Amino acid sequence: MKYFAVLFDLDGTLLDTLQDIGGSMNAALARMGYGTHEVTEYKRLVGEGVVALARKALPQSARENEPIVKACVAALRDEYARHCLDATVPYPGIPEMLANLQDAGVKTAVLSNKPDDMVKMLVRKYFPSIRFKAVLGARDGIPRKPDPAGAAEAARLLAVDPARCIFLGDSKTDMETAVAAGMFPVGALWGFRDAGELRHYGARRLISTPGELLEILEGRQNANVDH
What we know:
By secondary structure, this protein is of the alpha/beta class. Helices cover 41% and strands 15% of the residues. The protein contains nine helices and eight strands.
């Protein structure tokens, strides 16, 4: 099948944000007197939004205490607002891949569970020359991934049938979203989760480098992994 658009996850797919997310979450936990985590542990904690992240990062005894969770989320937002650009960078090959898609006339959009204002700021900062048709983060009234509502909204803004849209992401949340939205799920192996998780939750292809996405769009199969 020919695809005319690509919907991208942000964290772990376009941008390596792990150091800044993990550092900010640890700073928030420390402010509240709780223990912290190794930054690499955040690979398994991120992906479902700031509330879910705070809940998972807190000690088990505090995770169902809503005032504590709310305070932790506020501390995380404060820390991340001040440190979100400290170490964040695009993954190697991402800027070139996005430029090539744009030159080829492929429509692109971003869908993240990160707060909407932060998503828009990061995309403007790191990809100023890319003309995304939509950049969507978490907003009140719109269910977060893996609910397909955001992906369906992106498809409408892209003016593309979801079946003609690739969804590139790095986690089970992204693969579940793609499946639920009727998009073609592609797993990014450079991100936060592994091939086993991506396959289990619906990835139809796995790619090791951003450039391989172009080969899927061109109908070339040799660099892709089916299951």
